[in-house]
Amino acid sequence: MSATVEQPRTAGPGDALGGSWNVIVRNDEHNTFDHVARTLARVIPGVTLSHGYAYADRIHRGGLAIVWSGHLEAAEHYWEMLRAAGLTMAPLEQG
User: Which pTM was predicted?
Assistant: First the structure.
């Protein structure tokens, strides 16, 4: 009979999905501040309209902004919803 050897856990519970993933919106010439701000407030949990405008400003001034970070499945969902609303998205990036 062989013995089972348990190895210590080296990763957290969410690491099976690759840890934290960044949802990044890029600046473009066709979306207005209002559209970007309202879309972010509608799609991303915890983003108020005021926060949406702050993100829109950061996107405009810096060329892009990370608007959400977390597990891969949720990141894919938010990324797709933002893209479907017409925002210019960078590929998901592992953080």
Answer: 0.81
